């Protein structure tokens, strides 16, 4: 594999141990997600924002990120 291909493949590293060995995934379970505090209860569709992340294969640290587009649709005033 060329070094350029390796650089494209390795776009995340663990902030705890520096490893590039990571697995992508999402939080699972009943009711697991992110609901903004200032979101109205009654919105079209669900008010939960999908949370995805990566787990380090060396130390188990998690890096999480939410669906920013969904958050901005729920709270358009936050999209400054």
Give an account of the 3D structure:
This protein has 2 helices and 3 strands; from the N terminus they run αβββα. A hairpin with a 5-residue loop joins strand 2 and strand 3. With 80 residues, it is an alpha+beta fold. A 3-stranded antiparallel β-sheet has the order 1-2-3, with no helix packed on it. The longest helix is centred in the N-terminal third of the chain and has 7 residues, at 3-9. The chain has a domain at 27-80. Helix content is 18%, strand content 20%. The N and C termini lie far apart (42 Å).
Quick tags:
alpha+beta, single chain, 80 residues
Write the layout of secondary structure elements.
Layout: H1 3-9, E1 22-26, E2 51-56, E3 62-66, H2 68-74
Antiparallel strand pairs: 1-2, 2-3
Strand order of the largest sheet: 1-2-3
SS strand fraction? 15-25%
Shape, principal axes of CA atoms: elongated
Low-confidence stretches: none
SSE string: HEEEH
Structure class: alpha+beta
Strand element count: 3
Radius of gyration: 16 Å
Total helical elements: 2
The pLDDT mean sits at 77
Helix content bin = 10-25%
N→C terminal distance: 42 Å
* Largest sheet properties: 3 strands, antiparallel
Compact summary:
By secondary structure, the chain is an alpha+beta fold. The chain has two helices and three strands, in the order H-E-E-E-H.
